[in-house]
Every structure is written in structure tokens, then in C-alpha cells.
Fold this protein.
Amino acid sequence: MSRPAPPAPVRADLVADCQHMATSAMGIAADLARIGEQECAGTPCTADALAYIRQRIEALAGFAGAKF
């Protein structure tokens, strides 16, 4: 029986890009959680806060689109 080929080495730049995207996504999720907590406490979300979240999501999408 033949052995399967060893896995290809993982590119360090790809790992770094994925880590960057994961960190960005976690930051966005944390921001959204804070907004949710504030709204539950009776403080409505501002248009500026939503614009900031949208900007971060678009930046992440742009980064991912440029890399992949």
C-alpha cells in the first residue's frame, strides 16, 4: 500500500492573515455585544456606532477579498 502524501507546509503569511481576520471578527463581535448590552440597559444605539461597525466590517471584507 502506498502512503498518503505529507501535508503541504503551512505558509506563515496565510496563517498571519487568518489570525488578523479572526481577531478583527472577534473585535466586531465584541462591539456588537456591547451595543446589545447598552440597548438592553435602555441606551439606544447611535448612528455613529452603527457606522463604525459597518466601517470595520467593510474593512475586514476588503482585506479578505484582497487576500483570497
Summary: Residues 12-40 form the longest helix (29 residues). The mean pLDDT is 91.
